[in-house]
Every structure is written in C-alpha cells, then in structure tokens.
Amino acid sequence: MMQAALFGGVNAAILSAMRDDLSIDLDRTAAHGRWLLANGCNGLGLLGTTGEANSIGISERLEMMEGIVERGIPAGVLLPGTGTTAITDTVLLTRRAEALGCRGALLLPPFFYKNPSDDGLFAYFSEVVQRVGGDIRLYLYHFPAQSAVPFGLDLIGRLLRAYPGKFKGIKDSSGDFANTKAYADHYASEGFEVYCGDDGALHALLNAGGAGCITAAANVGCAVSAEVYANWNNAQGAAAQTRLSAIRKAVTSAPLIPGLKQAVARRTGDAGWLNIRPPHLRLAPAAATALFAALDGSGLRQAA
Q1: Would 264 be classed as within a structural domain?
Q2: Whole domain around residue 200: which residue ranges?
Q3: Domain for residue 115, yes or no?
Q4: How far is the C-alpha of 155 from the C-alpha of 148, rounded, in Å?
C-alpha cells in the first residue's frame, strides 16, 4: 500500500442532493458528507460521475464547492471533479478549488471529441496545468466507458516528466484490474497515487502499491471499505473485501445513481434524496424493492 498519499484510503464519490425543483441542495449534501466522514471515509470525491457533475452547470459547481466548505466539510478532504470539455471552465473550477483549500482536483479528459491523439491530450492538460498554476495537485480520471477517452501509460509518463509533482494520481474506473495494476506498477514508485473506482478491486490494489479507492458504493458501504483499507495486508482485510464486493454487486444490480439515492433515502428516512436530474430517473417501486433486498442480502449494516 502506498504510504502518505494525499487522498490515501477510502473516498466516496459523493452523491449530490437535489431539491424538488432539481436545484442543488447544499444542506442535504453536506449532511451526507459528514455521515460519510464519520463512518469510514477519509475523503470525498465531490462533483464526480456519481454526483451528477455533468448534469450540473459551471456556476452550480462553484456553488457546490463553496457551499460544502461553508457548511463545515474541511476543504482538505475534498477531491472535486473540475475537468470539463473547455479549458477555461476547467481552469476556473480548479483555481476555485485551490482557493477554497482543496489539495487536489480530479480531471476528466476533454471527452466530447472522440479519438483524440496523445499529442492533443497532452496539449490540453499542458494548457490546464500552466493556467491553473498554484500548488493544487491534479488527478486524472480514467473512465473510458463514459468518456471514451482513455489515459494510456505513455501519456501519463509524458505528463509526469513534463510537470513534476503536478499530476499526482489517477482514478481508474475502467473496471479492468490489469489496467489499474499497470498504473501502479509503472508509476507508484514515483509517488503517483492510483485509486480504483471499483470497490471489488480495493484489497488487490492496496497489495499492488495503490493508494485507495474513490467509489460510488462507498456512499453506503464505506465502513466496510475502511475495514479493508485498515487491514490491507491480513486475513481480516481479505474477509472484509468479500463483504465489500457483495455490497458492490448489490449496488450495481440497479441503475447506479438512482439506486444509491434510493438507498440513502431509506437510511435517512428522507424522500428528498430521491430527486435526480434527467436523463436519470427515479427507480420504479419494484426496482427499489429488489435493490433493498440485494443490499440486505449483502450483509450491509449502516449507522443512522
């Protein structure tokens, strides 16, 4: 396991609460963040895929970052998603994150134009890092199923050489552990922090020199994730991983974001958590019942 990683441990890709009119609900989101930090999370991946970031406008993303910090979530535990298709928006969000006290930001690649060359991606990230300046560390977000723009080993090496200390790590949501491990094998020795987006890979990644996880299922299973992290090199951790993998399987048995919002609504008794921006839709009652049965069958136990 990588020691002294900036975001080492369990990071939840935190949900974004919405009001009935689908505006951002800062109070509910911050309350969920506090619960996560009290129940095993080391950090919060704010405004990621699970947080519906690409359904949220730039001004609203600024409001979310500022509002969460104003509501008492320490900026140092936040790893906000600031990567957009526009260099100027990415720079604006990343600079604001640093001004608030965030130590890192998670950047999707510019994902609209498909099949960009490594030269094109290098040029994009070069513009971003030079314009952002400051001390904030940049984390790459590899999610080819959604972005269709992968981060290859050669591109990562090129960025690390060109901008020492600036590109600090990567979240791999490919679900391909061989790929995740390759990142760690090639670059963890240089202090490059590798995080899995798949809860099922946490134990194996920690044993391969990875830094931790940034995952959707941590919204419900963070206490088990924390047990895996704390016991990464012993049998207790391996047993906890079996439970965590079962939770992950249950969570992914339903559409991910609607299902997680349904689960949080059940835990809190707060139906406001069911609000979700289209094109996502609330789960149908039968699907919610099936999800709850799957979660209960996984052995998930949650504090209120």
Answers
A1: no
A2: 9-234
A3: yes
A4: 16
Question: Which CATH number does the domain housing residue 57 bear?
Answer: 3.20.20.70
Q: What pTM was estimated for this model as a whole?
A: 0.97
SS3 category, 79: coil
Tokens of 120: 């094109």
DSSP state of 227: H
Give the mean pLDDT of 13-36.
98
Is 46's pLDDT higher than 70? yes
270: in domain: no
**Does 101 map to a domain?**
yes
Between CA 15 and CA 55 the distance in angstroms is: 12
Q: What are phi and psi of 120, to 5 degrees?
A: -65, -40
Question: What residue ranges in the chain does DSSP mark as E strands?
Answer: 9-12, 43-44, 104-107, 137-142, 167-172, 193-196, 212-215
Q: Say yes or no to pLDDT of 211 above 90.
A: yes
How are beta strands 167-172 and 9-12 bridged, if at all?
unpaired
pLDDT tens per residue, range 212-231: 999 999 999 999 999 999 99
Q: Name the domain count of the chain.
A: 1
